Amino acid sequence: MTLVGRRVRVRVPATSANLGPGFDTLGLALNVHDELDVEAIESGVEITVEGVGAGEVPTDETHLVARAALHAFDRLGVPAPGLRIHARNAIPHSRGMGSSGAAIVSGVLAAVGLVGDDVDVDDATVLRLATELEGHPDNVAPAIFGGLTIAWVDDDGPHHTELAVHRGVSLLVAVPQERMSTSLARSLQPADVPHADAVFNLSRAALLIAALTQTPGLLFAATEDRLHQRYRASAMPSTSRLVEALRAAGHAAVVSGAGPSVLVLSSDPEQRLAAAEIVAAQEDSWESHLLAVDIKGGTVEGNPR
Ligand code: HSE
């Protein structure tokens, strides 16, 4: 089989993981996207980037999209072609909005799309290939499937289920200038946590599913966390201050993913605008994005799977 000459267009959403109590488990797809045109060529990797990351990210086979595509070809047992990739990126990097998960999902979907009907690849395989590179499934699951996802891992690998978010929930993501490294954030986590904190998060995570799907009025109580945010606060003090200021005013604010962005889950659009005013009043410079849930997840066109 030669893939040379095949082309696909891949579009993958930003994501917000954890959502407060759902550490490494819950994720939400957001309507900000990276879009890539990928062509199979004879050899080599050629990458051009527009938008976020232009002039910063590598443009050879070490680029995360290319690495993910090459990983997918390898795991699918398909000889990898060369790749020509043009990326139009809108997802901010290192801000807790799932840019690395989106890049990994883009690469995997591009490889799957280029292979087309020559190899049968199901959704579970896409999730497994992406999770192998990302390390945890909470960003890649919503990036692939859209909506609100619950992801878990057992001896067979990662799994997920998708849920529709209640139409009364509106989203605000506040994005700071500074960046945060996920590996640094993860290094601040203790190996063990008190049993009482585990129970605390269990109750809030369970409640959060009800709040996001049925009863948005419960969002404030449902977004409390004792498993990750407090341990990471020293590494992102302005994030911590903003979450505190928003929660003190009754907004369901959490750290988005590993930070430093802040996600506010509002139960009505006016509440969201009030949250945006608090963000604008901060001394540090934050950009507020009024976002919606992406329900499509990652898409591939051209050589559809
Ligand atoms: N659950 C992950 C974390 C999301 O908080 O470390 C970021 O990749």
Note down, in words, how this protein is organized.
This protein starts with 6 loop residues before the first strand and ends with a strand. It folds into two domains: 7-163 and 293-301, Ribosomal Protein S5, domain 2 (2-Layer Sandwich), CATH 3.30.230.10; 170-291, GHMP kinase, C-terminal domain (Alpha-Beta Plaits), CATH 3.30.70. The longest helix has 19 residues, at 195-213. The protein has ten helices and eleven strands. The radius of gyration is 19 Å and the shape is globular. Helix 1 crosses helix 2 and helix 2 (99-115) packs across helix 3. The strands form two sheets. Strands 1, 2, 3, 4, 5, 6 and 11 form a seven-stranded mixed beta sheet that branches. The protein has a four-stranded antiparallel beta sheet with strand order 8-9-7-10. The protein is an alpha+beta fold and 305 residues long. Bound molecules: L-homoserine. L-homoserine binds next to helix 5.
